[in-house]
Automatic annotation (TrEMBL):
InterPro entries associated with the record: NADH_Ub_cplx-1_asu_su-2, Ribosomal_mL43/mS25/NADH_DH, Thioredoxin-like_sf
Keywords noted in UniProt: Disulfide bond, Electron transport, Membrane, Mitochondrion, Mitochondrion inner membrane, Respiratory chain, Transport
Protein name: Ribosomal protein/NADH dehydrogenase domain-containing protein
Chief place where the protein resides: mitochondrion
Database matches in Pfam families: L51_S25_CI-B8
The UniProt record lists the keyword Electron transport: yes
Record-annotated Ribosomal protein/NADH dehydrogenase domain positions: 20-93
Amino acid sequence: MAWRGNISKSLKELRILLCQSSPASASARTFVEKNYRDLKTLNPKFPFLIRECSGIQPQLWARYDMGVERCVNLDGMSESQILKSLEDLVKAGGATKA
């Protein structure tokens, strides 16, 4: 999973939007609990923004160069699917810089 260390090289910002209590956000909450520390350790100065809002659908937002943003709806995804979505967003950002 070498891509985890390249997040700060591929993206400008990563936002995770989730609800603190809804079942739809359960996997997103689990993803944050299990992966945040590792991702932040590998990318210490990178802005990982966790936004909690009651009733919101879970989403993953990636911001690239020039203000370009991509969103992935996390509703119904498992933790491993969320990780794969993040990997795809990171790799997409690296492809635009090549």
